[in-house]
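Q: I'm building a small set of examples for a reading group on sequence design. Run inverse folding on the following structure and report the sequence directly after it, with nothing in between.
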């Protein structure tokens, strides 16, 4: 099993940017797809972005398309989520998740602890 730790969350003004990181240990990280999910207060956890094990396939939720970019560095065992032009509705706890089967249609096996992103208006 792979273990995941998110970092990089914080408070930012509307229109600003943040870069989240998901660092992995254990397992064979390079064979896992990794996705980002988010959960706002009172709302269901929702998918944001995913990247395949090879990095060649990427999928975004419509709500973040054109503003967020997911990438991975298998040598560093890290997946990133670059978030630009942030909006108050992006405020949520962001979680990364790993899928051993490697595809961007995520069925997560492992979750990180989450990192808070707050966007002020």
């Amino acid at each position: 099993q792979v273990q995941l730790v998110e970092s990089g969350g914080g408070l930012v003004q509307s229109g600003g940017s943040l870069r989240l990181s998901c660092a992995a240990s254990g397992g064979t990280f390079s064979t896992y797809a990794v996705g980002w999910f988010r959960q706002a207060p009172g709302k269901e956890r929702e998918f944001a972005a995913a990247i395949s094990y090879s990095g060649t396939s990427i999928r975004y939720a419509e709500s973040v398309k054109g503003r967020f970019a997911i990438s991975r560095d298998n040598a560093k065992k890290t997946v990133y989520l670059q978030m630009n032009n942030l909006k108050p509705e992006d405020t949520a706890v962001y979680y990364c998740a790993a899928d051993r089967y490697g595809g961007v249609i995520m069925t997560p096996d492992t979750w990180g602890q989450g990192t808070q992103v707050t966007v002020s208006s």
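The two ends are 40 Å apart (CA to CA).
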